[in-house]
Amino acid sequence: MKALVFHGPGQTSWQDVPDPSIKDAADAIVRVDAVTICGTDLHIIKGDVPEVAPGRILGHEAVGTVVETGGDVRSVRPGDRVLISCISACGRCRFCREGHYGQCRGGGGWVLGHTIDGTQAEYVRVPFADLSVHPLPSALASHDAVLLADIFPTSYEVGVLNGNVRPGDTVVVVGAGPIGLAAIATAQLYSPGRIIAVDLAASRLAAARDLGADATASADEEPERLVEDLTDGLGADTVIEAVGVPEAFEMCTRMVRPGGRVANIGVHGKPAVLHLEDLWIKDVTITTGLVDTHSTPMLLRMMAAGRLPGAAMVTHRFELDQMEEAYDVFTRAGETGALKVVLGGPQHDTVAVPPQEQ
User: Fold this and answer.
1) What CA–CA distance (Å, rounded) separates 70 from 254?
2) 3-class secondary structure, 180
3) In 133-257, which residue ranges form alpha helices assigned H by DSSP?
4) Which numeric CATH code is attached to 153-287?
């Protein structure tokens, strides 16, 4: 099959690789029908995630069709159309039993495209399939459903829930890429008083307004002053960091009110300064986190009911073999206006899977 392979910082290629095979009785082999690129993939390629070894197939978000399952899989069978979660869950360890699947210690957590081969390929092996894939209703398009693999649960759980967004709050979202836009969309479920979006790209600020932001500010034009003006000098109740660079995080800590919350979603490859000399007296809560995806079934129901934006966030579509072109467009989002890019691969009737070892 073909797959996007990481060869070290700044180096990837779309190349031939062996087909995946069942390695454990809880595995499923899924044909990839729609896949997308995450900002985390860009961090990996930059070298910000050193745990990703050269030779790894990237990607952790996809929709596909099950073609084979291990003997222990009960919830899906060949032919089922499924959402592949960015998080795999063993279901047995302490963290899984508490619903903290992102911290799984039984071989799960964020493994796809990280410590095992991922979804930016024609086929993918999904471990712990009973808890790591979700059957999809036929009415939900793959190009919409793939947004539920990562960006919606991540923004909702790590941004909105960790940020404790409440009715009437002033919420600032720093970074209006796909994660930030999903945070804007899901924050509205809690009826905040206003949502302010901050970004460098005019196209992304326009998208933020379309998805419900009440005000926008360019990151290079003192957005702190706008927040101060709109809150009578108090600061925002919740500030969500959705970029992953030190400047963005430090900006968030300057915007939050005393007693407010800073929810960091961004993947950081460099240290950020924590100005405790200013923050210690303000009763500020700072949260970090990897998504658990416990909210995925609920978000899936909401999208199927038309309560979440899907296609509105997809700006570019490609065939699967245009992976390198898609990466180029997504990497240059400031020039191309890309938000979420989705790739759909050619359809196959069969997959050659080696016989399972006894």
Assistant:
1) 51
2) helix
3) 142-145, 151-154, 178-187, 202-210, 223-230, 246-255
4) 3.40.50.720
